Structure formats: C-alpha cells, structure tokens
Amino acid sequence: MSKKRESYFDNAKFILIFLVVFGHFISPHKGDSEALYTVYNFIYTFHMPAFILIGGFFSKSIMKKGYLKKIFRNILIPYFIFQFIYFVLHRIWNGKETLTLFDPYWTLWFLLSMVLWNILLLLFIKLKHPAIMMAVALTIGIFAGYIQDIGTYFSLSRTFVFFPVFLGGYLLKKEHFTKILRPEIRIAAGTILIGMFVSYYFFFPQEAKDWLLASSSYEELGVELGQAWFIRLLMYGLMALATFSFMTLVPRRKMFFTHLGTRTLYVYLLHGFIVKLFELSPFYDLIGESGNYFVLLILAAIVTLILASKPIITLAQPMIELKTHLLQRYRNRKTADVS
Predict the structure, then answer these.
(1) pTM for the whole thing?
(2) Closest CA to 250 of 32, 61, 117, 57
(3) What are 7-21's pLDDT values in tens digits?
C-alpha cells in the first residue's frame, strides 16, 4: 500500500506541474479564444490548490526537530537565488528595477507562501481541534481580502487565502484518499469535472479569473464589500470540489512519469524562463495567428519532461540546492564507510 500511495502522490505532482506549465503557456493567448479561456480558468481552479493540499499533507512532521530548518533551507535558498535572477533579467530588460527580497516575482510566490504556511501551521496546531482550526483559517482567508494594500508583498494575500487548503491537507489522512479512490467515486468525480468545464464555458464571468489567483484585495477586484465574503466562500467551494475531483482521478499505480513527480521544484523554477523566451519569439505570434493552440499542449508536455530529466537536474542542482550529484554521492559513500 505504501508504494501505491507514493506513486499516487508522485503521479499527482507530475500531472499538476504539467498543468502549471501548460497554464503559463496559454496565459498570453487566453483572451484570443473562448475555449482556451475556459481551459485556463478550469485549470486554475484546482492545479495550485491541489499542489498546496499535497504540501500540507506532507507537513505532518512539522513538530519534529529540524523540520522547519529543513523547510527554510530547501525553499528559501532557491527562492532568494531565483528572486535575484529575475531581478537581473528585469533590470536588463526594463533598465530600472529595484531589488525587493520579499515581493516575489511571478511564480516565486508559491515558495515564499510555502514557508509562511508552515509557520502558520505551527501556530494553528495549538488550537488542537480541527474544526476550530479550519474555521479560523477560513475566516482569515475571507477577511484578508478586505485589507486594501495586502497585495503581493510577502505573498500575504495568497498566503492567507490558500492557507485553509494547506491546513486541509495537513488534517487529511491516508484513509481519506483511499476512500475517494473507489470506482464509483471516480465516475462521479469525472462527471463533476466535465460539468464544471462545460459550465465554465457558458457561465464563468471573465472578471472571476482574478478570484482564482487570490492575489488582490476585494477593492481591487471591483466587487461590493458586502458581497465579497460570499464570493470568496463560493470560490473556496469550487476549488475544493475541483481539487478533490482531480485527486480522485489520479492513477494509483506506477506510471512512466511517476519518478518525475519527485522533481517538480526544478520544473516549477525553470519553466518560467522558457515561457518568457517563448513569448519573445516569432513562434508566439505564429501560434496566435494560426489559432493552433493544441501545439501549446505538446510544447508544455515537452518542456515539463525535459526540465524533469536527469541531465537538467544535474546541471541545475548546484543553483537550486547548492549541491551536486558528485558531492552527494561522496557524502553517501562517506556515510556508508562510517557505518
């Protein structure tokens, strides 16, 4: 069962990172096609919430000694490195750019929020009762939108809005995932996702996409403050429904891509540069003129597979983890000799 569980979560992570890459590839074109815009909104309803849920699920060792230190080392180091790289690129491109350590560029919000979610989790654990923990987290997530200047600094808006998802992952147990993988529930989940996609095509308001990003205050979203709490609560419901429906459909058995699910951090950090280069290339305009957006799906799959490949991991590891395979092999051999 344990191997199946590991394959299950690795499968989920790989599929999700592919959807992240695909979502970023189609983002510049989403306004050109109603179908593409529907795909974009549909993906954004669950791909990051599912990632966050899984992150919370694997945070159960948070009370162990050294856990938080490991989180800081594994996440903050690549965050600061890539924050600086993006600063340099923006400085070259724009000419004027001020380095800000805690106003994350583009995709880096997730890393900063991951650190903050773990810190918040330490505080929430003291509440002890799961229902109280979730109620407080949801209340904070809803009322965070009323803070006008909450914005992207320290990724505070997304940190507070998505924290209930992270907390939910922490509170879930393996048995809960086992229950949702029953065949009859999978059929229901597939039906729900199809129904959501179709309804998004016909009924999803264009301005609602900013609610899925969770990076703006209610005032910036242009909604009446008296209705805002209800809309956010509705978005929580949509995210939960789509996220659990997706997790229900993830295969349990080992797939050809299962082992690549352990390398999602590399794909997440590196794909942004490729997406930006793509936007600057003639190929970007060609896609828009031809309307052949299926090519973006193929391109996203190729980029995801390449960035998760062993040669890329070997090349990027010194920058992302400040270590190399050779150094790690030496340390493992030294440990084996001592034992």
Answers:
(1) 0.91
(2) 57
(3) 999 999 999 999 999
